[in-house]
Amino acid sequence: MNKAIITVVGKDTVGIIARVCTYLAENHVNILDISQTIVQEYFNMMMIVDVNGAEKPFEGMVGDLEKLGEDIGVRIHCQREEIFTAMHRI
Amino acid sequence: MINIFEVNETNQMIERENLDVRTITMGISLLECCDSDLDALNEKIYRRITAQAKDLVATGEAIARDFGVPIVNKRISVTPIALIGGCACKKPEDFVTIAKTLDRAANDVGVNFIGGYSALVSKGMTQADENLIRSIPQALAATEKVCSSVNVGSTKTGLNMDAVRLMGEIVKETAEATKERDSLGCAKLVIFCNAPDDNPFMAGAFHGVTEADAIINVGVSGPGVVKEALKAARGQNFEVLCETIKKTAFKITRVGQLVAQEASKRLGVPFGIIDLSLAPTPAIGDSVAEILEEIGLEKVGAPGTTAALAMLNDQVKKGGVMASSYVGGLSGAFIPVSEDQGMIDAVTVGALSIEKLEAMTCVCSVGLDMIAIPGDTSASTIAGIIADEAAIGMVNQKTTAVRLIPVIGKGVGETAEFGGLLGYAPVIPVNRYSCEGFVGRGGRIPAPIHSFKN
To answer: Is A3-88 a CATH 3.30.70.260 domain?
Structure first.
């Protein structure tokens, strides 16, 4: 399985998750896990997704999600999972 | 499964604490290019480099995008040119044509430095070695991206004092040849003792003759991450301090290891080593000096600096070694003055002298690095400084290096500007007593007694 981590950080507003999930659904990306916190009105979400079914190349998705973040007014990063497992798992 | 706190920690390191992979360096062997015809040699070198490294920059950028971690530099190191050019180059000017070819190849593949305009003369110089060394001032003035290094000694061979004396003159000539740019040429020239074959960091990178046709070496960084982690250990004892540094070094190195393996896979070139060096940049918060200050020094250079640096360097290695299957290169904290804002500040207020820097190099890599000295410093004094630093390396069985910039036309209190990653440096005073009689003797300093281990 090819997993990626999507993080969304920014000021909370209506429909952030909906917009991100819509994009993922349109691109055949399956969501495996979502966690979310709100600290002092700041929205902080992390998704673990499976990008195996995606037709788009990974770097295209990275760019699309960044742009989507700009539209909503939050920062969205999409990174391959290995950087986190390399750093935090022995 | 990875949790949100771990993800946030990694991304905070990248976004706020300057975590990056400092360099992916592709080592390329040029041994197959040897030719007695100079034009044919230049053509073969150009083709070999541009064919092998054509995807290096694009691959580096793609990996950076996929993992969301910056890869600051993509670089090339080649076989020492004195070996490659020996057949065809009969005079120093011939070698300069190869420097220009390297520069052209580096520009065409888009890397920001190419290292290996080098000679290994730790015991003696061939005519080709000497011609290459004499061509260095002209080569570095005529090119932008070429980096040069000369190995003048080792624990096994002792110090080649003829080469040391010659390098004093060459540093001076290089400074003169680039004097309208604050003697920038000297920032691309390193004089080594015990030079490693697989160092990915410039200006001292070259692809040793013990290496394969091509190899990927990666240099990690992250002084800012260590400094931030140490804030949480304020007031705690050394055990807690050391644990914190080790854990942080492990995390930083794992990112480097991941990037190295990925680059090796995508480029179809074997992975060589990870260099575990803490490499600062002039950016605020990306400073080794600031780590030492966080450990408890008012300014770098204060008593305790050498001990603090020794501990830092050791803990970085202990944490990093477990994170990578192959560790090599220089692997130690770098203390380049001009590339580290904390070092610059310490020199400016008079806390840090060249003598204290020399003491610091006994316990960390890599040497007297990016230090601006008065432009009227004599060649023999520069040779004396090189000899001192090389002796530290020789006796302690470690790599040491000298990258001094005698800034022509400037004296103590003035500032030299190099720009970009090379930063700026206040000109530091040098001991004014002569060592002419010592460096003028000629010959070799024998290898130390503890090198005879067989």
So the answer is: yes
